[in-house]
Amino acid sequence: MVTTTSTTSTPTPTPAPSPTPSPSASSVMGSAAQALFTSLATGSGIDTASLVSSLVQAQFATKTDALKAQQTALTAQISGISTLKSDITTFATALKTLTTNGTLQSQPQTTNSNVLTASAQTGAVLTGLTSTITVSQLASAQVATTQTPLADRTTVLGSGQLTLTLGSATYSSDGTQMTGFTAGSGTPVTIDVTDGSLDSIANAINAKKAGVTASVVTDVDGKAYLSLKGTTGTTQAFTLTANNDPSGNLSQLNVGIGATGTKMSSVAQNAKLTVDGVSVERSSNTVTDLINGVKLQLNGTSPVPVSLTTTTQTDALKQAISDFVDSYNTVLADINTQTDPQNGPLKSDTAAQGMLNSLRSLTTRSLLSNAQPGTPTTLAEIGISTNRDGTLTVDDDAVTNALNTYPASVEAIFSYSSSSSDGVSVAMNGISLTSTSTLYGLGASLTRYTQQQSDLSTQQDDLTDQSQQMSDRLTQQFASMNSKVAAYKSTQTFLTNQIAAWNKSD
């Protein structure tokens, strides 16, 4: 008797499926494979779907893990670069704002604000300023107003032209009439009047923007007057002459020598001052070009000289020094985290290291180019000390001593000028620009890491394609094998049944 022995295969353990970029594609492939195996009845008895997945995962596991590790590292590096760029630019911008808003500058002050006040211009170094100023005349503008009122500001006076001319004038002793006029170099302005009321004439004059402003004024009885005002200064006097005036009504608006329809309430003149014994004139009561770095506002006249001095903003400077140290230490902490030799994602980044070195040298570099010998020029010399860990500390006693002994130097270190290389703000701005440069700074590092991240994505896509190709190939191979095993089993079953029949017939 011939006997046969059937064998039962042992299913292969199913490992965790490998990640694929397209779950939908994987699902479709798995369903198709399962349908194929089901249609082959018992087949080989092997879970070929799990086997294919395991083989593909084993083939590409090392490459996949390597790409994931690189992607994680690049993500951390890009995040670190963004953090440091934000830190340094925010620090530099805040410091520039602080040093340009004027709160750290020595502020000018006067002994009589009723005569004049003073304020510092941006970037001015005014420490130790002293001056005496006498204001004998304020600048004023010529103002002329019609003498005869109109009952209605909208009543039409007539049509024609008005000619406006700027120049210099002399006036009567009471300042109500013009006694002489010399036209300036500018071209007279022609103003066309069509069916002109006071309102329309005022609008036509203002539309020319020729240095004279017109307005219509009404009194308590509602009667209207035309008022014309120039700008301050002796060369800003003006005349107004009616031309082509068929009705003759426009001539009552004339301003100038012999004009009877208008009168002056103010004359065009310069401000007159004596500064430290020198007599000067200015066309405006706001004077910015007389004392370097100081804007003067003339408010009144007095035969008594007014003293101009400055005061150092000691408390503001102390606060600025404290704020600077706090901000520095915050930025330094982030840099140290990112460049930590053991776990820092930017530990090998030259731009981050360069930024760190630049900050470390900030306290000892000279911030004043033309300082007097013996005066402090560095942050360390005004009381900002560096600890062993690189952080900064404020020595309050040293800062107070520096402010008392060298106030001008401390102020200059914390001042800002767009035309100077002096000051901590300029130094920080330079560090910021260098550190974030797209050629060799953090900007260049960000470009490099971003490109590497893009390259990794391409490699991941290629790896996914290769994995899918291998999966498709193995699925086809195992499907073919399963078909053949099923055929062999069918033959085996036929032979077994045939032999059993033969044996039974014996």
Question: What is the terminal separation in angstroms?
Answer: 10 Å
Number of helices: 9
Secondary-structure element pattern, one letter each: HHEEEEEEEHEEEEEEEEEHHEEHHHH
Structural class: alpha+beta
Q: Please, what is the average pLDDT? A: 85
What's the total number of strands? 18
Strand order of the largest sheet: 1-16-3-12-13
How is the quaternary structure best described? single chain
* Apparent shape: elongated
Rg over CA atoms, rounded to whole Å, is 45 Å
In brief:
The protein is of the alpha+beta class and 506 residues long. The chain has nine helices and 18 strands.
Care to describe what's here?
The chain has helices at residues 23-39, 48-100, 198-208, 314-338, 350-360, 396-405, 407-413, 424-435, 442-505; strands at 107-110, 116-120, 130-137, 143-146, 158-171, 178-183, 189-196, 213-218, 224-229, 237-243, 262-266, 271-275, 278-282, 286-287, 294-298, 306-311, 384-386, 392-394. It is of the alpha+beta class and 506 residues long. It has 3 domains: 74-102 and 314-447, no CATH class; 107-139 and 271-311, no CATH class; 143-266, no CATH class. The longest helix is centred in the C-terminal third of the chain and has 64 residues, at 442-505. Mean pLDDT is 85; it is low at 1-33 and 35-42.
